[in-house]
Specification:
The structure is a homohexamer. Chain A has about 150 residues and is of the alpha+beta class. Helix content of chain A is about 30%, strand content about 30%. Chain A contains four helices and five strands. Chain A has a five-stranded antiparallel beta sheet with strand order 2-3-1-4-5. The radius of gyration of chain A is 17 Å and the shape is elongated. The mean pLDDT of chain A is about 95. Chains A and D meet through helix 2 of A and helix 2 of D.
């Protein structure tokens, strides 16, 4: 029979923890320019992506079934226009018994979905790509930094 | 001042609509084999990913700020192990005034985040990639099929 | 591999549908009398149970993974004190492609959990029992009435 | 015993409905000027207020216990700086069996709470005031326009 | 580009914090009397307002985008009929790194929206007004009491 | 006037707490055998019940109006086929100022509703029964074990 469980974190120490995640939305140059110019019909894409990413980070345990609830002390979502679309970085922090990778990854994923939604009428071939953990610290398993 | 708005869909016809989205989680071969064997500590990864994807599709308007609420008539989330990890396809359908791309894309994104969460203790360098729309039909703008 | 799916209701006709469910919380006579007298520390137990049941019915597709979202046109939750505790009946109605059994059953279940929560400091041996469908109508499979 | 119930709307006709609501956040001139200049520590107050108002409108039946779920076809939240703070107007539309007053009122209320939250470190004596329905149309009881 | 961020509270001390907020729903005398008499069609208005206010306080970080999640240890919502309608006071408490003003303000706002919803069929000219912080204590910036 | 309130837990000590709850879904032998064989149209019933129970435990304060929010450190939901249907046990743990009975009871209740939903097309006379607390420890009132 299928076994499915939350990990028991009750014996882990309460420590300060931080994670940073990254994602990218690839789109046509034309659309990227319209984001920069602020001329898309749904409005200020990057502002809405920030808000959506922050709100999603707070709801991570409602969205990802086996995640533990956490008192986030900070979430930062930073979208930046680049040559091929929008790059999103999100940092999450807590003082808790388990890490915040999923909060940072959920933040970047939902920020990308939000950009997609606001831009999709102009470009149906967009892609969200490269969602990954950039760095992580504060847990028992030591600090982690992704290879470049 | 920043303009942000939901598109008014009140004058669009109610039609049957369908969308299919795709995503992939790239991971080490070892971890992929442990998913297949069912030996990861959080349990049956693909079953939880299916459930998480379906539930997320239903909550899309809560997660993506400018999405319209929709009465989904069907959501299917299909994960498949491949050479480099897990590929996820999700199909969403409704009879409504607007399309279900965001529901299908949210389903695959959250299914990937769920896989990531259940596997992350074994592989911290995983990537979620290639999230995109495969096909779409039923709307005013005609059917769309992504180029291969 | 485990198959998990929402049923496709896209081809079912939109009809008016209704379901009635029942549940019971068994408790000591003393506690039942304190509910009647309104002297429990958390307050008016039956009023809170009604509100909790109605709100839960509306959130059924968020709580029960494979339920379809539905535009409920009516939910009624009726708690009644009896010899051995509190009996709850809930009626739900919609005009939709699928039935409202789960909405009625979720309403009575959450109303019972709410009563339990408000009373538990006074009686730790309570039981919730007999949760079942009393009647159902409006679907393709015809009307159903439970045997007494 | 306390009676609490959702109104049964199952026999009401499905019509196109619209409601507009208003609210105001009164604050010091200094703080209002800092919103205009964009120099408050939490960032672009009016953009976040728009997003929060739209998202809250969609969640009205989760927040207001006896509200019916509705497929909103449009929500618009418009904040404007004035002499004494920020005025918010929200318009909501649907095609349904019941009206959207509560959606419009929830949108303006949550937009105001969001402004309050983003500004509170700079002015603890703010007030939210004048929350009311400006106009309503599409229901059985006829159109309504508030007296000026 | 618009900057939007949650304040980082990770370096603030964990202290016991309390906030009290106030709001008022102004309505016709006739309607106020029907609330007192309990003869409105949706039922016991003040009981539902209490429950809605308490539940909304717990969901504040889901509703107000930049609010931190908090483990509330107490929420009290007290509605009182007065000459011109219903006055609501809400007290919220926690032991955390940040304050509970927004929880108390969200509680009174949603309690008012709930009253509005239950009464609106009888009086379309109601107003919610005077939403403000009455007192606050436990934070770095010292205690605050609103001027009368 | 009806008094309704959350208990103030602000003065209770933070201790490690645990609760275990039980419930049972009674169904026909035929349907129970189809769950075991995995031949029901919605798929792997017990896997979905586990996920639904875990997710519901985390959302207990959103579902049960007067429950305090809690940082759950572990939730385990274990369904087992028996002679007359499926028995569910759920264990919840936290380190907090109040207990986790409601989290464990909500987990078993929602796991049962999920089983009911997935099986209902095959058996409309199912019953959910015997929902109760099996054991509890860590609070001021001492450990509790239900009589067999």
């Amino acid at each position: 029979m299928s076994e499915i469980r939350m990990i028991d974190v009750g014996n882990k120490p309460v420590t300060r923890r931080r994670a940073v995640a990254y994602a990218h939305v690839a789109m046509s140059e034309d659309v990227r320019d319209r984001i920069r110019a602020g001329t898309l019909p749904k409005g200020d894409v990057l502002a809405v992506a920030r808000v959506a990413g922050i709100m999603a980070a707070k709801r991570t345990p409602d969205i990802v079934p086996l995640c533990h609830p956490l008192p986030l002390s900070r979430v930062d979502v930073t979208p930046e226009l680049d040559d091929s679309g929008v790059a999103i970085t999100a940092a999450a922090e807590t003082t808790a018994q388990t890490g915040v990778e999923m909060e940072a990854l959920t933040a970047v994923s939902v920020a990308c979905l939000t950009i997609y939604d606001m831009v999709k009428a102009a470009d149906r071939a967009m892609r969200i790509e490269g969602i990954r953990l950039l760095e992580k610290s504060g847990g028992r398993s030591g600090a982690y930094t992704a290879e470049p």
